[in-house]
C-alpha cells in the first residue's frame, strides 16, 4: 500500500464532497459503517466514467454512500444496489431520498445470495461493484457475472484487506480465515479464463476485472 504521507497527500487533493455526502461520511464514522475509502472510490468513479457505464449493480449498499457517489458521477446511470441489514437499508433510503437522486437508484432488500431472480429484471449490467461480505466474494462474482454485458467490468473492493493478504502470520483465527478466503479469491480471479484482472493498491485494494467478450 502507499505510505502514509502519500496517502494523505492524495486525499488532500480530492475535492470536498457536497454537504449531504460529508454528512454521510460522518454518519459512517460515528456508526461504524464501513464505506469505501476515498482514493478507492475516486478510482472506481473514474473507471466508470471512462467505461461510460450506464447500468451498474452494487452488492453491498450500506447507507448508500457509494451508490450516491456513482449516481452523481454518472449522469443518467441507473444503479441497482443490494443490502440485507435493516438499519442500513433505512438509513440508505433516507439519504437517497434527501439527495434527489432517488430515480437513479433501485435498492433491493435481502441477501445478495438469494435475490438474483429479482436483480435479473434489471440485467444486463455494464458494471458490477462487489463490496459486501468478504468471505463470499467468489459466490457474488459467480452469481452476478451472468448478468454482465459482453464488455462489462467487475470491480471488487477490499481485495488487499489492509495489507493482511501479504502477511504470513496473523494471530486471530477469524481474521486468518477471512484473509485466506480473500487470497483464494484473488488467485482464482487472476487466473480466470474469461476475465482480464488487475489489482490496484488504492484504498483497501481494488480489483478491476474486464470481461474478455467475443474475440473479433
Ligand atoms: C462495506 S459495506 C458497503 C459499503 C458501500 N458500498 C459504500 O462504499 O458506501 C458492506 C455492506 O454489505 C452488506 N452485506 C454483506 N453481505 C451481504 C449479503 N450477502 N447480502 C446483502 N448485503 C450484504 C453489509 O450489511 C454492509 O452494509
Q: Mind explaining what this structure looks like?
A:
The protein has 216 residues and is of the alpha/beta class. β4, α7 and β5 form a beta-alpha-beta unit. The protein has helices at residues 4-13, 19-30, 38-51, 65-73, 86-99, 116-120, 137-144, 173-190; strands at residues 55-59, 78-83, 105-109, 125-130, 148-157, 195-200, 206-211. Strands 3-2-1-4-5-7-6 form a seven-stranded mixed β-sheet, with helices on both faces. The chain is globular and about 45 Å long. The protein is built from eight helices and seven strands.
> What is the count of DSSP helices, taking H or I runs of 4+ residues?
8
Mean pLDDT value: 95
Poorly predicted regions are none
Strand order of the largest sheet: 3-2-1-4-5-7-6
Topology as a string of helices (H) and strands (E): HHHEHEHEHEHEHEE
What distance lies between the first and last C-alpha atoms, to the nearest angstrom? 37 Å
The radius of gyration computed from the alpha-carbon positions, rounded to a whole number of angstroms, is: 17 Å
Q: Percent of residues in helical segments?
A: 40-55%
The rough form would be described as globular
Q: Give the class from helix and strand content and strand pairing.
A: alpha/beta
- How many E strands? 7
Q: How many strands, which pairing sense, and closed or not: the largest β-sheet?
A: 7 strands, mixed
Amino acid at each position: 500500500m502507499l505510505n502514509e504521507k502519500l496517502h494523505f497527500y492524495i486525499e488532500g487533493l480530492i475535492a470536498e464532497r457536497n454537504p449531504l455526502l460529508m454528512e454521510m461520511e460522518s454518519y459512517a464514522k460515528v456508526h461504524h459503517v464501513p464505506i469505501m475509502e476515498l482514493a478507492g472510490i475516486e478510482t472506481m468513479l473514474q473507471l466508470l466514467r471512462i467505461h461510460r457505464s450506464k447500468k451498474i449493480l452494487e452488492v453491498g449498499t450500506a447507507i448508500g454512500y457509494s451508490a450516491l457517489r456513482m449516481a452523481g458521477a454518472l449522469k443518467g446511470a441507473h444503479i441497482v444496489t443490494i443490502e440485507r441489514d435493516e438499519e442500513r437499508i433505512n438509513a440508505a433510503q433516507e439519504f437517497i431520498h434527501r439527495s434527489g437522486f432517488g430515480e437513479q437508484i433501485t435498492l433491493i432488500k435481502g441477501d445478495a445470495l438469494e435475490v438474483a431472480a429479482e436483480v435479473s429484471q434489471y440485467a444486463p449490467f455494464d458494471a458490477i461493484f462487489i463490496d459486501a461480505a468478504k468471505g463470499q466474494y467468489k459466490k457474488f462474482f459467480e452469481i452476478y457475472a451472468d448478468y454482465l454485458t459482453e464488455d462489462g467490468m467487475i470491480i471488487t473492493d477490499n481485495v488487499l484487506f489492509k495489507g493482511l493478504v501479504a502477511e504470513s502470520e496473523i494471530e486471530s483465527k477469524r481474521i486468518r480465515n477471512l484473509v485466506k478466503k480473500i487470497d483464494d479469491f484473488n488467485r482464482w480471479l487472476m487466473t480466470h479464463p474469461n476475465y482480464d484482472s488487475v489489482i490496484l493498491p488504492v484504498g483497501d485494494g481494488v480489483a478491476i476485472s474486464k470481461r474478455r467478450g467475443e474475440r473479433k
